[in-house]
Design goal:
heterodimer; A: 336 residues; mainly alpha; ABC transporter involved in vitamin B12 uptake, BtuC; two-stranded antiparallel ribbon; B: 397 residues; alpha/beta; seven-stranded mixed β-sheet; 16 strands; 20% strand; elongated
Chain lengths: 336, 397
Amino acid sequence: MDLLNALVALTNYVIVPGLSYGSQLALGALGVTLIYGILRFSNFAHGDTMAFGAMVTILLTWLFQSAGLSAGPLPTALLALPFGILGTIALMLLTDRTVYRFYRQQKAKPVIFVMVSLGVMFIMNGLVRFIIGPGDQRFTDGERFVISARTFKKLTGLDEGLAIKTTEALTVVTAVIVVAVLFWFLNKTRTGKSMRAYSDNEDLALLSGINPERVVMYTWMIVAALATIAGVLYGLDKSFKPFTYFQLLLPIFASAIVGGLGNPIGAIAGGFIIAFSEVTITYAWKKVLTYGLPESLAPDGLVQLLSTDYKFAVSFAILIVVLLFKPTGLFKGKAV
Amino acid sequence: MKKLLMATAAAALTAGTAYAGGHAKEVKLGVLFGFTGPIESLAPAMGDGAELAMEEVTKSGKLLDSATVTSVRADTGCIDNGLAVANGEKLVAEGVNGIIGGDCSGVTGAILQNVAIPNGMVMISPSATSPGLSTMEDNGLFFRTSPSDAREGQVMAEILKERGINSIALTYTNNDYGKGLADAIQSSFEEVGGEVTIVTAHEDGKGDYSAEVGALASAGGDILVVAGYLDQGGLGIIQGSLDSGAFDTFGLPGGMIGDSLPANVGADLDGSFGQIAGSDSKGAEIFAEMAKERGFDGTSAYASESYDAAALFLLAMQAANSTNPADYVGKILDVANAPGEPINPGELGKALEILAAGGEIDYQGATGVELIGPGESAGSYREIEVKDGKNETLRFR
């Protein structure tokens, strides 16, 4: 019984939040890694692309809500999501036509692209704040919990509760579906294969007749979709505020680099590694240990390795260790 | 923004001067608040509160030789020490007779050390509540119309004890205010025999607080005390704790009291309780009425304290018959405290008359002013409990 309580407490405070946060990071890191692999630069505007996608979705969600549309127990935002993706794709393609294409024709160095993306980031930053404002926006509706802590306690008679929010379940399920579709696309379709070829060896790909502009266009479209989905899921689960999306950029890049920039599997693994190390290292294990260990061994202190203030420090410590000992990341990405 | 503010201040100044044309004398008070930055939503009402007192005095025509009082606004940015000090110096250069401000505790200390003390300028802050300011060396030049957070810690400990709570988990927003308040709550609660299981900081403006909530839940405690801001991390912590079933009841210090919290959290917040600086004096009502007439919200946080700060300056000047800080500084405690005729908001003219005739006053103002110790408000608090999604006042302490 006690072991059961320990397990429930662990699931409630570590595993469930870690899984949903990890999925959100993984989706974000996938976008970053695709740009790095195919367009060959680190896209600093990714966090704000997520914010833009989430913003379009939120505005449409409000429109749908006022029109009385709803998805039953699921959040209305899911209905608005496809349109949000379309809006973000339009913005991405517009940015590429007006900004990135110029530098591509100049054959600019990657570092120039990085600086250009920084500029794009500031513009998007302003655009989002200009349209929806800098404050918190809530747009979650529908059923809040798959199972709430109180119901769980009642059902099982355990001391510890387990809460799973709808948005958490939704995040994980959506992430699995999106990743499956993406890998199918990259490995099985002609366009996907041409993208991978272009990523592996640009000259060879050009010689074999792959149209580079086409590959670039598809990449932006996929990245826009990934960013919007990640942004909306994060906003649903937590809350939407432009500034938090900007801050997300750091853990997302950490995930992508830890996993190996340019490697999609690495991005997913990196997302979960970062998320779980942030949660587990700053978690106070007292409760779990008190349930799990015999009474004589139960700890008095909090058994917390690091205070939660150091949450961000954890991801960067991991990042540095990985860069020192395995610069290409855990899953062999391109050399950084 | 800065330019705009400066232009506004300059415009207000010119307008004030033109208006003052026919009068003999001019008294200038600096209004040094964070018109930009984290409390930019509160600062306009605070500025209006201070200027309301100035207008009232000017209209009465009874200050010194029927002097006019003009306000010179300047920005602290709330957390920008460089900006605050530069603007403080600018005010002194413009020849203000006193500075109402600063607002946030950190910049207030900086202005005090770098501007007020070297220039012998008097400061009355309406909203800096850090306990650190009580002990800071101030050459007797610093006063505040808000109570120190150390007092709030005592009040909170009393309330907790009376409700039979023996252990709390404590989290604070990671800045001067949060840290000072958390220290005060912890030491006062431990003094009365309570146990604090964990003290941990949270950062504002983040999306995710599950790690913080996890640590707090693991430490346990009867309730969770959240010394944060209701629109910021404080809300996130409460939402996270309720979602994961970590805590059901919350202790809410001043920064967490507001209508938006019960509205955002919903029915689960019922039964949580806390306290915020406030008094049941008649002055508060009168002030709210006066503010409404002038077109701003008098119940906005620290607006009434700002009115009192401005009024104290002008009354002390009248009592000392001088606008020189070195002369009137000694009179501030005299006019604020008993003995003397109690003075409510809107009665500044009457107070000036009494002082001119050599009588004594006990300024009550909008917040029931009573200055103690090193010149800070004794502080009465409203005890609040959330019932049916509303903050209800239980009693005053």
